[in-house]
Every structure is written in C-alpha cells, then in structure tokens.
Amino acid sequence: MDEDSVDFEQLYQGNLGVGPHMPWDIGAPQPLVVELADAGEIGEDVLDVGCGLGDNVIFLASRGHRATGVDGAPTAIRQARERAKAQGVDVEFAVAEATRLDGYENRFDTVVDSALYHCLNEPARNDYLAALTRATKPGARLHLFCFSEELPESFPTPFRFSEASLRETIGKSWTITRLRPALYASATTAADLLSVETALLSQPIDPEALARLGVDEHGRLQLPVWQLTAVRP
C-alpha cells in the first residue's frame, strides 16, 4: 500500500473496494480509548484527529468531555455528525487537514490519534507533530495508536513503526511517558480481508500471516499496535 495512493474521501464513499464497512469501523469506541477514559487520562478539552466516523470522540463527549473531531474526508465527517445526532451527543466536527489544524491554536489538553499516524509519510509526520504542538496547551497529553512492525508485511497499511523510530520522531518534541505493545480492534475477519479485492492491496495478503494474528470473540482481527502517551512540554 502506497501512502500516496489512498484517497480517504473515495474510501468513505465506497469507491475503493474495501467492502460494505471500513476495516476500522467497529461501531463503538476503541477499547483502548475506553480504558484511557476509565483511567482518567482524558482531559477536559479533547481533540480526536483523524476521527473518521466519530465513535471515539462521540464516546468521549458522552463522558462529559468537550470533544472535537476532525478528519480530512468530508463524507466521514458527515456520517460522524449523523452518528452523534442519533446518540444525542454534542460534538464539534470539522473537515480539517491534520498536518495543519488551522484555527485550533493553544486549545486542547488531550489529543487522541487512533490509527492516523501510520497513514502519514515522513514529511507529513513532521508537519503533523508541529500542528499538534500548536493546537495544544503546555502539558497536554497525546494518546496515539499506530501499527507496529509486528503487523504482517502484506497487510494494507502505508507504514509500520518500531519503538526506536517513534522515540526518535515523537520524542523530539513531546516527552514520551508510555510506549507499549497493544492490540487494536478491527471490524474485519481474516476471511473478509482475503475475499475483498481492493486498490489498497499492493500485494496479496499471506493467509498464514493473518492466521497468526489474534481475534476477538466475534473472529475479528486484533491488530498489533504501539500505544504511546506523550506530554507536550
């Protein structure tokens, strides 16, 4: 999968052949986000950057946080607003470029990045981290989940990261307080993934590699990620 080949607006419109559901659309907040909220690690003003269909930020708003969700795909934001309205939850949604975050200077004390970082190439990652610094207050916390090098090479994602690479890149501007392996809930089974022909696949997926991944009680893949928490100086 090439980082320049994915048009997320086309993806959310259903034009890239991933099937009827986004692979990350579990219809609920990520369990890792719920754990953070339960542990009191989400501040009053929270930004979900790359919020997609909005389940994480809707959940956080339902817990009483002032919640903002931004995404570069207008279709995703439209559907996220519909989900929030259906649940009676007040969330500020906006179409915004994650590498700029114009209009959000010095605003947030928490940022949630639920699988956006691994979609960005190196120049975009640097711009993104600079944008996060501008958008947050001193002492703000960043909670980030991104694919690790344990993910099979044939799995469709632009990038995988080692612990060292995250420490080198994010640690330049933020103080990393937690960096550990974790599992990320997906909406797809191995059979689903193997049966879908999609423009996102640059090479065939190895069934044996998929078989080594964990699954939940519904047979949905649990994907290896890094869970990172960092504090803005």
What does this structure look like?
The structure is a single chain. By secondary structure, the protein is of the alpha/beta class. The protein has one domain (26-185, 223-231): Vaccinia Virus protein VP39 (Rossmann fold, 3-Layer(aba) Sandwich). 29% of the residues lie in helices and 27% in strands. The protein has helices at 8-12, 31-38, 55-62, 74-87, 122-135, 163-170, 190-195, 207-211; strands spanning 45-49, 66-71, 92-95, 108-114, 136-147, 175-189, 214-215, 220-231. Strands 1, 2, 3, 4, 5, 6, 7 and 8 form an eight-stranded mixed beta sheet that branches. α4 (74-87) links the parallel β2 (66-71) and β3. The longest helix has 14 residues, at 74-87. It is globular and about 45 Å long. It starts with 7 loop residues before the first helix and ends with a strand.
Layout of helices and strands, plus pairs?
Blueprint: H1 8-12, H2 31-38, E1 45-49, H3 55-62, E2 66-71, H4 74-87, E3 92-95, E4 108-114, H5 122-135, E5 136-147, H6 163-170, E6 175-189, H7 190-195, H8 207-211, E7 214-215, E8 220-231
Parallel strand pairs: 1-2, 1-4, 2-3, 4-5
Antiparallel strand pairs: 5-8, 6-8, 7-8
